[in-house]
Write a structure and sequence with these properties.
The chain has 138 residues and is mostly helical. 83% of the residues lie in helices and 0% in strands. The radius of gyration is 24 Å and the shape is elongated.
Length: 138
C-alpha cells in the first residue's frame, strides 16, 4: 500500500519554507518603522529642546511635528490611529494659520501668507473628514 502522506508532508514543508522570507520581510519592515519613528521623534525633541536657549525655529519645529505625525498616520494599522494622528496634523496647521493671521493683522504679513497657510490646513481637514467617513461607513 502506497503512502499518500509523503506528498502532503512535502507540500507543508514547501509552504513553511516559503513563509520564512515573508516573516523576515515583515520583521525588517517593523524594525525600519520603529527606527524611523525614533529618529523623527528625536528630531522633534532636539528642535523643541532649543526653546530655552532662544535658538528654536518654530517653523522647523512645526515641520518636524508634521513629519512625525504624517509618518505615524501613514503606518497606523487602524483608522482610529490614523484619525488621531491626522487630528494632530490639523492642529499644527491651525497654529501655522493663526500665526500667519497675527503677523498679517500686525501689518507685517500679507494675504498670500495667510492663503498659503490655509491651503494645507484645508487639505488636512479634508483628509480627516475622509478618515472619519470611512469609520462611519465601516
Amino acid at each position: 500500500m502506497k503512502s499518500h502522506s509523503a506528498p502532503f508532508v512535502v507540500l507543508i514543508a514547501a509552504l513553511l519554507v516559503s513563509a520564512l522570507p515573508i516573516q523576515a520581510e515583515e520583521s525588517s519592515y517593523t524594525e525600519v518603522v520603529k527606527e524611523r519613528d525614533s529618529v523623527l521623534s528625536q528630531i522633534l525633541t532636539e528642535r523643541e529642546g532649543r526653546r530655552p536657549t532662544g535658538m528654536a525655529d518654530e517653523a522647523a519645529i512645526a515641520s518636524a511635528r508634521l513629519a512625525l505625525y504624517a509618518f505615524r498616520r501613514d503606518v497606523a494599522t487602524t483608522t482610529g490611529e490614523k484619525i488621531r494622528n491626522q487630528e494632530q496634523i490639523v492642529q499644527v496647521f491651525e497654529l501655522k494659520l493663526a500665526h500667519a493671521q497675527s503677523v498679517m493683522s500686525a501689518g507685517l504679513g500679507e494675504t498670500l501668507s495667510v492663503l498659503e497657510a490655509k491651503a494645507p490646513l484645508l487639505e488636512a481637514k479634508q483628509l480627516l473628514a475622509e478618515l472619519r467617513l470611512k469609520v462611519k461607513h465601516a
